[in-house]
Amino acid sequence: MKRLPTMKQLQYLVALTDTQHFGRAAQRCYITQSTLSAGIRDLESVLGIPIAERSNRHVLITRVGRQIAERARALLRDAEEVMEVARAGRSPMTGEMRLGVIPTIGPFLLPQVLPVLRDRFPELTIYLREEQTAPLLARLEEGELDAALIALPYETEDFSIDVILKDEFLFACHRTHALASADEVSLDALADEQLMLLAEGHCLRGHTLDACGVGDTKARAQFEASSLYTLVQMVAAGIGVTLIPRLAVDANVIQGTGISLSRLAAPASRDIGLAWRPTSLRTDDFRLLAKTLREMPSLAS
What we know:
Layout: H1 7-19, H2 22-29, H3 33-47, E1 52-54, E2 59-61, H4 63-90, E3 95-101, H5 106-120, E4 124-130, H6 133-142, E5 147-152, E6 160-174, E7 184-185, H7 187-190, E8 197-198, H8 203-212, H9 216-219, E9 224-225, H10 228-236, E10 242-245, H11 246-250, E11 259-264, E12 269-276, H12 283-294, H13 297-300
Parallel strand pairs: 3-4, 3-5, 7-11, 8-9
Antiparallel strand pairs: 1-2, 5-12, 6-10, 6-11, 6-12
């Protein structure tokens, strides 16, 4: 019978590919360096080809070795999901879930939903990672995350998406601004305003520009903030105006700032959705998670 690589050998290969160092790879796998070296040699014997070039100073994974490592990474991810599915087979929403969230959602949504999820699914342990959308989806695609809470629209054709809520944009300015306390603010009224934006990489930047009908060329000359909290403080100081998602407003992000809010004459919003790999074996769990979030009274109102 033909010999096949073992899961341990594939784990060793992935660790060695990531670290490019036998010692660090061994530490990651919680084994000795000699054990890892022997495992790699055994893997090369099974495959019939060398996968690593060794020297006293460094290790270089061959082109074929890198290709095999990527396949191995996917196999290891699937093996982890098999174990999670087995746990879920005993009871849904159990075990561990690695959940990503973007910075313009996490601080405002998670404090509302995490206590409810803990009460409803006590055997589920959620590990969180906050990051901008592009790197977050890259981690999701690579299997480092199980699912991610993101804002839409965004390019997500490689993922399954379940929309949780529609998040309306509100016009925000200082209380002494000419547009303060207006019932509605038109796009024409925004044309000559200094629009405060998040820095490039935040999807809220693009959503704000789309909502205001402002080109990104004009926006580049204006102030860019690293977080929504900084953006709020700049508007509170009377430096400019911006759009703030209702999710953040409901979380009291402008409390005590002297900021005035108005609705847009042409309403605009973003969708908050849960994304996961369509091949994931935990799709039922993710759909249940999205349904649970969608039905929370604080989000449905």
